[in-house]
Amino acid sequence: MANDVSGLPHGDSAGTILGHPKGLFVLFFAEMWERFSYYGMRALLIFYLTKHWLFSDSESGVIYGAYTALVYIAPVVGGYLADKALGQRKAVLFGAVLLTLGHFFMAFEGSPGAGNENNPIIFVFWLALALIIVGSGFLKANISVMVGQLYPRTDVRRDGAYTIFYMGINIGAAAGSLLCGFIGETYGWAYGFGLAGIGMLAGLVVFIWGKPLLLGRGEPPRLLGKTTELGVYGLGLLFVALCWVAIQYQDAVGIFLGTFGAALVCYVLSIAIFQLPYGRYSAAPKAALLSYVLLSVVLAVSMFFVSQGEGYESWQLPATIGFGGVVTIMILQMIAKTDHDRDRIVSAMFLIIVSIIFWALFEQAGSSLNLFTDRHVDRGGVPASTFQSINAIYIILLAPVFAITWQFLGRRGMEPSTPMKFGLGVIQVGLGFLVLVWGAQSVGVDVPTPVIFIFLIYLLHTTGELCLSPVGLSAMNRLAPVQIASLIMGTWFFASATGNFAAGLIAAATGAEGSGEEAGKQVVLDVYSSVGWYAVAVGVAVIVVSPFVKKLMHLDTLADDDVGDDLEGQSEGPGEPQGAGIHPTTRPTH
């Protein structure tokens, strides 16, 4: 039996289940329970904000958006610290402990009411959210990487392993939404959140118990001293403190996303436009490079003010000038010099920007759509939060169908290109809203909307997700040059965070004319109609330009120079765009 560099056997000396190492099922159950707790809490969160703490719809939408955005940013920290010091196993363990604490803290309700500033339990609530954010960052950034580490790179069982793991994700998500949602709305918030905490504790116990079955995978990259290890945990707790502050000041999250996002995109494009084609920045055209830097600074600084909203409208013009200048220089450089790696990065950035629009609409599920289902849908007495399980159930049913369909079309040369799939995904998420609006208006705004239209909007959103999320992860992996693979993947996840925060702003708009139950059904339908038509128009535009974007991908010259270039864990599955982590390993460890 062959050994890897650590002296551990490639095989499964601990035995197998269904032909796979037992360690896979340790990770399966740990992740299943983590998703059970996360989606169970997510199903209840918007109701907890509006019904218990009595935040307005607008306030609740922004809080929800800031929370989910931070959940997408956290893997930057969790993945980086695991790569540099902790290793994946200890990072997952630390994340699981934080998550367990966070979910149990959610069970402390305090007295309800709008005077939150006088209720000290509200600070416990913010702490619970901060612990869940950072815990997710450490766990989700690394557990899927460990799945890949159980197999040699050429092992034919790898795809099957990720399929099994991915099913655990969606089983946990569906069960958590159903059980925690039902119990929380029926018997009390503390019981629903407490059940989510019990689920996370179960995942933690399984992970600790199953350590011997992991075959030594995910251990620290080098000998880890106790002082260093404690220091890393200290940094994690410091990040909890930062998130505790950030979740209370949601505007700061938006400013950070707008400013840092603009700077990140400009930085990635500078590598693509000037460093890769010319070998180094110093060899690039001086005038073009200097102009690009100045325009990038103008764009980033302008976005700092634009992101602050009202009162800073005058900064929109310099932001437009900065953006237009950056794009103009990029186009001129693409005309002046041929470089396939640069073109692929540009196509990846195009897909990343499209994904922001998709996630901004898709993530209405846990916020405004959840409230709409609760207030304006004929549910037959079924708690609204349980409808959060529909997406996960649809994924379990439809993901194999999509995989088979893509393979079937691919063998016949008929498979849509990646940018075309993105366009189809955005169109479907828009159509979902339009179908709901049509269904609500067809029976009359003053009549409860038939529940079938909730099933239809989730169906269209799920098929759109299957066209975009797993396809996007694969595209980032294929298009990114190995030297900046993690940077491109990080930009993809950062875009997901931006989309989630934008989702909070859209959700806030649905409650703009009132707070709590006072928000009118027609207001929501008007917002959904607007975003639905915009999404369809954007999706059609993406399909129109998809041949050009596909050409920029230069698939005909794409080659595997090194079998180890693939990002481990990138194929975790749809619905978990943050799942693979920001800094996964890019070399085989076996």
Secondary structure topology:
Elements: E1 16-17, E2 20-21, H1 22-52, H2 57-73, H3 75-86, H4 88-105, H5 121-140, H6 143-149, H7 158-187, H8 189-209, H9 226-246, H10 250-278, H11 286-306, H12 316-336, H13 340-362, H14 368-376, E3 377-378, H15 389-411, H16 418-443, E4 449-450, H17 452-479, H18 485-510, H19 521-553
Parallel strand pairs: 3-4
Antiparallel strand pairs: 1-2
Helix pairs in contact: 1-2, 1-6, 1-7, 1-8, 2-5, 2-10, 2-18, 3-4, 3-5, 3-9, 4-5, 4-8, 5-9, 7-8, 7-15, 10-11, 10-12, 10-13, 10-18, 11-12, 13-16, 13-17, 13-18, 13-19, 15-17, 16-17, 16-19, 17-18
Give an overview of the whole structure.
- With 590 residues, this protein is an all-alpha fold.
- It is 71% helix and 1% strand.
- The protein contains 19 helices and four strands.
- The chain has helices at residues 22-52, 57-73, 75-86, 88-105, 121-140, 143-149, 158-187, 189-209, 226-246, 250-278, 286-306, 316-336, 340-362, 368-376, 389-411, 418-443, 452-479, 485-510, 521-553; strands spanning 16-17, 20-21, 377-378, 449-450.
- Strand 1 (16-17) and strand 2 (20-21) form a beta hairpin.
- Helix 1 runs antiparallel to helix 8, helix 3 runs antiparallel to helix 9 and helix 13 (340-362) packs parallel to helix 18.
- The longest helix has 33 residues, at 521-553.
Structure keywords:
590 residues, globular, disordered C terminus, disordered N terminus, two-stranded antiparallel sheet, 1% strand, mainly alpha, two-stranded parallel ribbon
- Fraction in beta strands: under 5%
Structural class: mainly alpha
Helix content: over 70%
Q: How far from one another are the termini? A: 13 Å
Low-confidence stretches: 1-13, 515-519, 561-575, 577-590
Describe the global form.
globular
